[in-house]
Amino acid sequence: MNFYKTFPDIWQIGLKSFMILIALSIFGCNGTRFIFKGSNEIKTTPDEIGLAYEEVWLTNEDDIKLHAWLVPGNSHNPIIVFFHGNAANISHRVDILQYFNEMGFSVFIFDYRGFGRSQGQAKSEEDLYVDARSVIDYLKRNGWSTSQMIYFGRSLGAAVSLQMGLEFPASIVVMEAPFTSMSAIAWETAPITYALIGWWSIHARFDNINKIEKLTTPVIILQGDKDHIVPVEMAQSLYQRANDPKALYLIPEGGHSNLYQIGGKKYRNIWLNLASQHQAASEASLRFGEPRQSISCAQQLRPGLRKLR
């Protein structure tokens, strides 16, 4: 029996694991830095599709310059603070910026350090949170209150949106394709590599499953039932641990990053309802001479599993 031909995959896995171990010995035992994959290529810009926007540069507390775009919308609507996922950069999200803009939302999207044109390099979980705090501080300095913000995070960005929701309560936190924790998603996507080296080399926790039960801001979870990266069960687990008011929407045939394309009218209505409820709450506050508070959908979200059919 030819052992090499019979077990080629074993040798490939062993070789890859050995190379990772070498890399860790050279660059240090913190494997977290190898998780973040941000492309520096600028694929397109909003003006190339006729979308008005403002280019923004801001400096975080680590004195690192971050690149961002502000796409203005209807002043009566809340602003979506977009925390994108891993890989690529904001120039790969132009289509969804247009999608939100057509519904009247303003959107602020930025690149974490090391992604796109942003300087530096993300090496830890905390680096992403530092960058996100700088964005919220920037928006507050420019006239936006957190009660006018929707934190929208996709995949890895859902973990960032959740953390910001704990630190700076917004009108609502929307988590799309969220995972329960870094260890859980690493085991799900690369069990052998994680078993060999990931459990001790990856310091990032992104412990969404335990954090979400501390969240007092209303939360909506969006999940595709054909997501091959984050299983549906993770969204369901997060929903079960979240406090009321909360809602979970499962998008039939939805994958990991195409829910706004696959979800059709039903997905769109989720966002339109947020806009209309925000406007109703704002008008009520002004009518009674009260300061603007969190949007009324916080109280209108009924407990229970929501499914789009």
Which architecture does the CATH hierarchy give at level 2? Answer: 3-Layer(aba) Sandwich
Query: Cα-atom Rg, whole angstroms?
Result: 20 Å
Whole-number count of domains: 1
> Which stretches of 5+ consecutive residues score pLDDT under 50?
1-7, 17-34, 194-201, 288-300, 302-309
Task: Please tally the β strands and state the result.
Answer: 9
Topology:
Elements: H1 3-6, H2 8-27, E1 54-59, E2 65-71, E3 79-83, H3 94-102, E4 106-110, H4 125-141, E5 149-154, H5 156-167, E6 172-176, H6 182-189, H7 191-201, H8 208-211, E7 219-224, H9 232-241, E8 246-251, H10 259-262, H11 264-287, H12 297-300, E9 305-307
Parallel strand pairs: 3-4, 3-5, 5-6, 6-7, 7-8, 8-9
Antiparallel strand pairs: 1-2, 2-4
List keywords for this structure.
single chain; alpha/beta; 9 strands; globular; 41% helix; disordered N terminus; disordered C terminus; 309 residues; 9-stranded mixed beta sheet; Rossmann fold
Description:
By secondary structure, the chain is of the alpha/beta class. The protein has a single domain (10-307), classed as Alpha/Beta hydrolase fold, catalytic domain (Rossmann fold, 3-Layer(aba) Sandwich). 41% of the residues lie in helices and 16% in strands. It contains twelve helices and nine strands. It has helices at residues 3-6, 8-27, 94-102, 125-141, 156-167, 182-189, 191-201, 208-211, 232-241, 259-262, 264-287, 297-300, and strands spanning 54-59, 65-71, 79-83, 106-110, 149-154, 172-176, 219-224, 246-251, 305-307. A nine-stranded mixed β-sheet has the order 1-2-4-3-5-6-7-8-9, sandwiched between helices. Strand 7 (219-224), helix 9 (232-241) and strand 8 form a beta-alpha-beta unit.
